[in-house]
Amino acid sequence: MIIAVDGPTASGKGTIAKQLAAHFGVPHLDTGLLYRAVGQQVALGGGDPDREADALSACAFPDALLADPILRSEEVGGLASRVSVHPAVRAALFERQRAFAEQPGGAVLDGRDIGTVIAPDADVKLFITASVQERARRRWLEMTSAHIGREDEIPLAEIEKDIVRRDARDINRADAPLKAAPDAMVIDTTRFGKEEAFETVLEAVEEKL
Ligand code: C5P
């Protein structure tokens, strides 16, 4: 069973994917982390995104690298969204994601192009979304409680602007843009708390299976 979870930043897709994986007892891959690792390496090395993606996909991303909390920062999210427009970066990361999706017993993957490119044959496709204002509010709360660097001091309006910029880059890129697969179930979590969002998703998934 493959479950594909796509959606824009701070839509709740990561939490929902994790909860679904735990519920069904299957492994979960947050594919954004792969792009974040490339973005981070490119920034550190002052390097070329295509070369970094090849090097990183060849070393298969040790778990220690993907577990680095710095990868979760807004800054690295922005770097990830910039490197992810390069087709060679996407191609270098394809096999690892595909292999993860195909493992026996199933998997849950979340990202931007899981239902459209990585696992177009997924049994369940979800597109999780929420209003820009609500996503900015959630990101702000997350930052304030996590106290990551000085990010807790970023005003809400700045976060909102950043989300709009990141959405535009992800939606408008030529290769694997952010969009719902035609057969995806679109779930808007704007008015839901975390529990309600998961209940709604689980109901939709169980109906589909
Ligand atoms: O999901 P997350 O915010 O961690 O993703 C960071 C960036 O990586 C996204 O803004 C997007 O540009 C890119 N990404 C992507 N395809 C994916 C996952 C993430 O292009 N499957």
TrEMBL record:
Q: Where is the Cytidylate kinase domain?
A: 3-206
Taken from the record, one Pfam family name reads: Cytidylate_kin
Question: Keywords, A to Z?
Answer: ATP-binding, Cytoplasm, Kinase, Nucleotide-binding, Transferase
What species is this protein from? Answer: Erythrobacter litoralis
**Similarity section:** Belongs to the cytidylate kinase family. Type 1 subfamily.
Protein name as catalogued: Cytidylate kinase
Where's it mainly located? cytoplasm
Enzymatic reactions: CMP + ATP = CDP + ADP; dCMP + ATP = dCDP + ADP
- Its gene name is cmk
Which Gene Ontology CC terms are recorded?
A: cytoplasm
Amino-acid positions noted as binding ATP in the UniProt annotation, renumbered to this chain = 7-15
Biological process terms in GO annotation: pyrimidine nucleotide metabolic process
Q: Where in the cell is it found?
A: Cytoplasm
Q: What Enzyme Commission number(s) does the record list for this chain? A: 2.7.4.25
Which HAMAP family does the UniProt entry name for this protein?
Cytidyl_kinase_type1
Q: Which InterPro entries match?
A: Cytidylate_kin, Cytidylate_kinase_dom, P-loop_NTPase
Query: From the UniProt record, which GO molecular function terms apply?
Result: ATP binding; CMP kinase activity; dCMP kinase activity
